[in-house]
Amino acid sequence: MAATLPAKTSAIDPFAAAPEPIPSGPFSIFHRLSKWRTDLGLPYPGNTEDLTKEVKRTQLTNLLYDGARADLAKAMSMNPLFQVTHSFSLGSQTMPPTYSFGAMYGTEKSFLHGTVDHDGNVTSRWHQSWSPKSTTKMQAQSASSGVPGHSVAIFEHDYQGQDYSLNAKATNPWPTDMSGIFVFSYLQSLTRNLALGGECLVTRSPMMPSGNATSLIGKWTSTDKSWIASASLMPDNTLNATYWHKLSEKVDVAAELMMSAGSVRREGLATLAAKYDLRMSTFRAQVDSAGKVGAVLEQRFTPVFAFTLNGEIDHFKNTAKVGFGVQIESSTLSDEELSAQMGVPPPGALVI
Questions:
Q1: Which sequence spans correspond to the domains of the chain?
Q2: Chain mean position to CA 182
Q3: What is the pLDDT of residues 60-72, one digit of tens each?
Q4: Where's it mainly located (predicted)?
């Protein structure tokens, strides 16, 4: 009896997936451009609001004050984060004594923060992350005096692309007459080091004529990210250029140049700052072309207690100011509860 030969199998798998169709027409051009940008592997350039983030962290921005301050913070929970704060300030030559109470709540996708002072002024912030690339922000400020113009509401949305960033912001928008201040910004990486973009400001008000202004933005980041240079050109011919360099793990330096070439008045300001990080302290120093010299020392004696001392001398006006403050942090949770909420073993626990 003749042997039965096995059936000859085809080399083509009938269940193999069909090749993905290539778009045609305008979609084909978009598909090719998208693939070309993906193949370039350009980095995310950051948003325009954080264009000079490293420079501001090195400078004495928002760190100088006169008089005395005290911030008392108590953590009620770590996951989710819930914290309350009490802030006091007194002895200032320009500001009256103040007290404010604040509360903070945060999860992986949401963040809420609000403060109220002794005069009844309320400020609040809300951040909501819809996805790793999309975030909505809201800020509000309400004045107890009820004077028009002292209450502000800001709505903002950030979108992070693979090699670009988009931001839209609306200040005091009113849907009936479409009034408000609107800002749209875009920043695009052109190479691994260079990013260019722009910002458009649109003002609409029933009491004043509407207007718009466009600014140009540029940013250059070194390959090893050890230094960053940026520049922005405003419509009124104001140029702001910055340079930040990380000399070592503990030393940062920053320089900023602001020049105004308007038709009425021409002026400029140059600022040089340095920051030195020690094991338990941070020292900042700054000097500018307006004759101001300042320094800030932040000393942390323990993880929950810090002391700040700052001072500034204006040589041209022959004035000076000095301020000091303390920050105290405490928690109602025990070490074991804190470790459990943070996902780490408690002190002295045996880790296997």
A1: 43-61+121-342
A2: 19
A3: 988 999 999 999 9
A4: mitochondrion
